[in-house]
Structures are given as structure tokens and as C-alpha cells.
């Protein structure tokens, strides 16, 4: 027998079952497993993909085999991975009974009672939104019993600037939710119930998605991962296989199973991750990024509660920083190897020069004279940030310098977009009107622009389009010359240092 030959020849680390079709086939598998792994001999982790109903809704298992799966095969399993119709069959429910997150959670708990170590109910058949997941989280009385893992660029903590083309509100975005139920969460994961949430992909490349996921789970178990970590790895692999799948022929096409074996530091762009390079930079230090874009200086500006002396103190140092920012873009022009690159950098320098006069005029409204601006001592936070950017420019190439100035562009765009989307208080807010900075590739006409509304302008169309151009530039550079591991680590280090320096600059603003 073929199965027996494999068992005799190779020390197995994991086992997966697929489409078993009928009772005789299932009986053969059960007899073989029980003979080779008698009581007292440990069986490798067994992943059961019940394959009762296909993604397209076709029945794939004779009804006579259903009881055998539930009563004899499932108790042997490390994990069972039914889709929603299969979960309904396993529980004896009517078709269409599982339609909500609550019913998915109940189904996962019910199936777990059949004896598997872990149960993963796949939610591709159900349509949910980010708002549905957030609403469920609010109803949980015990937060330790439910863990939500947002993945593939979705979720409330994901940078808004990575979704510039998405006009839907966050809560309305469609997602797929898989529900993992663990019988022993202390050993196997982080909570009894874990939700794996990712964007719903509009694609016809879905042939074999369940088989792909269960195979990926078996590989993860073979590496020694626990059920939770195995699910993290397998769902991410499967999602990317769908997202990067080639469109072949008509109907439901195949997945891209080879995406993970191609040596790429930066993944290919997909509809749900159009900016993989910038996404990789931001997600290389997510905690720092949140500290930057949710800084108390920003939140107090949004609420209109920032002390006036702090704002004036900040404006003075920002004027000094503008001089260095202009110098950095002058250096970028010198470093550029194309006319377009040199021209873009030179244009930004001219914008900054015009902005400096706007800054002087604006400071006058806060009682700061031009003489006071010019005589203000440069503080350590300003000097450290400016000198580091210039140092990067002198030591590295133009791409490193682009990354060094990018944290300012992306951070201000993120803050503006977030505050505008959240309905920040602008009525009567003394910081509502603030000059709009001509950051990286901005096309703001500063000659005719009065002091603009800070929240509305940084979150508005014009600045967000400027941000898109900056992001597109970085993505094009990364795609044209894909960074090696060491090169990306170098760029990542520059990015992280500049994010830290941006935080330090706002820290300084709070301490006049």
C-alpha cells in the first residue's frame, strides 16, 4: 500500500488528509494510522481538511463517511479546517445557518467538542466588514478570551496612507475572517478564540484554496509550531498565494503556490497592498510609527488644547529646520542621476524658500518677529534631526536621502488623513490654520496660498496626492532596483532613526 510505504520509509513530522470521497477510503486510512501509531506511540500532528463541500458549493463526500470523520478521524487531529458549509454539515445544521461572526464562533466551539486539538473555521463563504469585527470585539466581556489578528494591511492600526485609493470608510471595508478555537490556549496560542482578519480579494483564482491552507498548516506543524503560530504562517501564505495568482483561462483558476520560494525582500504589489516597500518600512517599527503619528503634540493640536507657548516654541524651531530641509533637497538634487530627479528636488527647494516667508508671516500672527526667528538658538532636537539627514545625504546615495526625508512627508500625511477622518475639532481651534509644508514632490502654489488650514490641508486631496507621488517614487525605485537583505536593512535603519527624530522633535515642542 502506498501510504504504508511512506510511513515505513520516511520519519513523518506532520500528516494531512484531503478529499477522502467515501467510507471505504476513510476506513483504510483509519486502519493504517491506528496500526502504525498504536496506543502509546505518538502520532505526528494530523491536519484534517474535511473536503465535504468545495469553495464553489459542490458536495465532495458521501454522506456515509460523515459519521466516520466525526467519530473516529477528528479525535486524532491536531487541527480540523472546515469551511462554513462543512461546519454546518459536521454540526448537523441547515445550510445557511452560519451567517454571522457569533454563529461562526459557536460553530468553532461546537466542532472542537468532536475532539480535535484545534478547530479552524474558514470564513471565505461569509461576507463581513471591519465594522462587524470591531462590533464583536466590543461585546466581549472577557478580552483575554478573544484575540483579533489583523493582517495584510487591514485593521484600525494600519497606516491610512497605505490605502490612498480606498475611498471606503475603514468600518465598511470587506474582510475575510477565519475563526480558530483552541481547547488548550495556554499551550497552543494566545486566547481560546482567535480571529484572523484580512482583506477580501476580488478574484477568480480560488481553485484549491482549502487544500492550500491545510497543506501550509501541515508544513507549519512539521516545523514544530503550535496551532496559533501555524495558523498565522499558513493564512498569510495562502492569502499571498491568492493575491499574486496568475489569471489563467476562465473559471476558478489556480493559486500562486511558488510565491514564497522566490527570493524577494519586498513582496510584489497586490490590490490590497499596492505599496509593499513603504508598507515594509512602516511595519518594520510599528510601535515607533504609532508613537509618531499619535504623538501628544498632534492630539493636542487636533483638540485645540496645545498651550500657545508650546506652539510658538515649536514654530521657532521649525523655521530653523526648514533651512536644513532646503539644504537636504539641494543635496538631493546634486545626488540625483536623472534630470527629472534633479528637477524635482530643485523645485522643492524653491517651494521651501517661498514657504519660509509664509512661516515668517504666520509667526508674526503669534507675536514672533523676524528678528526673533533669526536669533532663536537651535535646540539639540532640531540639530540632531537636521544633521542626521545631511549626514545620510553625504554618506549615502540619493535613495537613502529620499528615505531620510520621507518620514516627514508620510507622517504629516498620515496625521492629516487620520484627524480629518476622525472629525477632529476645527471649529474655534487656534491651530486650524497653519501653513502647508511643501514636502517631497508637493505642488502647492505657495505664492497665492494664504496660511492654510492644517488639519484640512494635510488630510485633504492636494497634500494626499503629493504624498502619493512621494510613495510612488519610492515604490518605483524599489521595483527598479530591488534591495538585497543588507540594503533593505540599511534603508530600514535610516527610516527608523528619522521616525525617532520626528518623535523627538515633537517632544521638544511640548517643552518650551
- Principal-axes shape call: elongated
Low-pLDDT regions: 434-452
- Report the structural category: alpha/beta
The CATH H-level superfamily of the largest domain is: Ribokinase
Average pLDDT score: 87
**Main sheet overview:** 8 strands, mixed
| Level-2 CATH architecture of the largest domain | 3-Layer(aba) Sandwich
The CATH class of the largest domain, by name, is Alpha Beta
CATH topology descriptor of the largest domain = UDP-N-acetylmuramoyl-L-alanine:D-glutamate ligase
- State Rg: 28 Å
The count of helical stretches stands at 20
List the main descriptive attributes of the protein structure presented here.
elongated, 2 domains, 512 residues, UDP-N-acetylmuramoyl-L-alanine:D-glutamate ligase, alpha/beta, 8-stranded mixed beta sheet, single chain, 8 strands, Heme Oxygenase, Chain A, 20 helices
Amino acid at each position: 500500500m502506498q501510504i504504508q510505504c511512506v510511513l515505513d520509509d520516511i520519519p513523518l513530522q506532520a500528516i494531512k488528509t484531503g478529499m477522502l470521497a467515501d467510507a471505504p477510503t476513510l476506513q483504510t486510512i483509519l486502519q493504517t494510522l491506528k496500526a502504525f501509531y498504536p496506543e502509546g506511540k505518538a502520532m505526528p500532528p494530523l491536519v484534517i481538511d474535511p473536503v465535504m463541500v468545495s469553495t464553489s458549493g459542490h458536495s465532495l463526500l458521501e454522506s456515509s463517511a460523515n459519521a466516520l470523520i466525526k467519530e473516529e478521524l477528528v479525535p486524532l487531529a491536531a487541527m480540523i479546517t472546515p469551511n462554513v458549509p462543512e461546519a454546518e454539515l459536521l454540526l448537523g445544521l441547515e445550510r445557511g445557518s452560519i451567517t454571522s461572526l457569533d454563529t461562526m464562533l459557536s460553530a468553532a466551539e461546537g466542532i472542537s467538542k468532536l475532539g480535535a486539538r484545534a478547530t479552524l473555521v474558514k470564513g471565505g463563504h461569509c461576507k463581513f466588514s471591519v465594522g462587524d469585527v470591531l462590533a464583536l470585539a466590543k461585546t466581549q466581556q472577557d478580552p483575554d478570551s478573544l484575540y483579533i489578528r489583523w493582517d495584510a494591511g487591514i485593521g484600525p492600526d494600519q497606516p491610512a496612507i497605505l490605502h490612498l485609493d480606498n475611498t471606503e470608510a475603514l468600518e465598511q471595508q470587506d474582510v475575510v475572517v477565519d475563526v480558530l478555537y483552541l481547547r488548550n490556549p495556554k499551550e497552543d496560542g494566545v486566547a481560546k478564540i482567535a480571529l484572523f482578519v484580512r482583506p477580501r480579494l476580488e478574484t477568480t483564482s480560488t481553485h484549491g484554496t482549502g487544500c492550500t491552507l491545510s497543506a501550509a498548516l501541515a508544513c507549519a506543524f512539521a516545523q514544530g509550531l503550535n496551532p496559533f503560530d501555524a495558523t498565522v504562517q499558513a493564512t498569510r501564505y495562502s492569502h499571498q498565494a491568492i493575491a499574486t495568482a496568475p489569471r489563467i483561462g476562465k473559471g476558478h483558476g489556480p493559486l500562486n503556490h511558488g510565491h514564497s520560494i522566490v527570493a524577494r525582500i519586498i513582496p510584489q504589489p497586490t490590490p490590497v497592498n499596492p505599496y509593499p516597500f513603504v508598507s515594509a518600512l512602516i511595519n518594520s517599527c510599528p510601535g515607533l510609527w504609532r508613537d509618531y503619528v499619535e504623538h501628544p503634540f498632534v492630539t493636542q493640536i487636533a483638540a485645540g488644547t496645545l498651550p500657545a507657548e508650546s506652539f510658538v516654541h515649536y514654530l521657532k524651531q521649525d523655521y530653523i529646520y526648514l533651512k536644513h530641509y532646503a539644504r537636504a533637497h539641494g543635496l538631493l538634487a546634486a545626488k540625483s542621476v536623472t534630470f527629472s530627479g534633479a528637477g524635482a528636488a530643485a523645485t522643492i527647494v524653491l517651494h521651501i524658500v517661498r514657504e519660509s516667508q509664509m512661516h515668517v508671516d504666520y509667526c508674526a500672527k503669534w507675536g514672533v518677529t523676524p528678528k526673533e526667528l533669526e536669533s532663536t538658538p537651535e535646540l539639540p532636537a532640531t540639530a540632531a534631526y537636521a544633521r542626521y539627514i545631511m549626514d545620510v545625504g553625504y554618506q549615502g546615495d540619493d535613495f537613502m536621502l529620499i528615505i531620510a526625508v520621507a518620514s516627514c512627508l508620510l507622517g504629516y500625511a498620515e496625521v492629516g488623513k487620520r484627524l480629518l477622518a476622525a472629525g477632529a475639532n476645527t471649529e474655534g481651534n487656534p491651530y486650524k490654520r497653519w501653513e502647508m509644508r511643501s514636502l517631497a514632490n508637493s505642488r502647492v502654489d505657495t505664492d497665492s496660498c494664504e496660511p492654510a488650514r492644517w488639519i484640512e490641508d494635510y488630510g485633504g486631496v492636494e497634500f494626499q496626492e503629493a504624498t502619493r507621488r512621494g510613495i510612488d517614487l519610492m515604490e518605483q525605485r524599489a521595483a527598479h532596483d530591488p534591495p538585497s537583505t543588507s540594503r533593505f536593512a540599511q534603508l530600514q535603519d535610516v527610516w527608523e532613526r528619522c521616525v525617532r527624530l520626528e518623535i523627538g522633535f515633537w517632544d521638544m515642542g511640548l517643552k518650551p
